[in-house]
């Protein structure tokens, strides 16, 4: 069973493989990964990974940009009898989207608070 960012329900092994190939390998066919650090305890393996690839296929509705991207992930695996029983995967989606030329814009509830905060910094002494 795998847990991926933006996916509401856990994925079984077949769905996880499909997710990886459809979402990442399809969009970044030359995707390379490097294990930067790995550690384990009795039943958990944790890894910090680095990915590098070129955006040559559709990614979350965005057509290919041919831009090279670099992003990192943290992955946790719960082990049972030497096999992965559960997998968690987190990565910096904002950084990845930014490299593809997209900007993450705060929603309508957060934007006014950010603007007020910035205005206070720009106009000291005024409230």
Which labels suit this protein?
single chain; 127 residues; alpha+beta
How is the largest sheet built, in terms of strand order? 1-5-4-3-2
Mean pLDDT over all positions: 87
Largest sheet: 5 strands, mixed
Helicity, as a percent range: 25-40%
CATH top level class name? Alpha Beta
Termini separation = 51 Å
CA-based shape: globular
Going by helix content, strand content and strand pairing, the class is alpha+beta
For the record, the CATH architecture stands as Roll
H/E element sequence? EHEEEEHH
Percent of residues in β-strands = 25-35%
Number of strands: 5
Rounded to an integer, what's the Rg over CA atoms? 19 Å
Number of helices: 3
**How many separate domains make up the residues?**
1
Stretches where pLDDT is under 50 for at least 5 consecutive residues are: none
CATH domain fold name: Nuclear Transport Factor 2, Chain: A
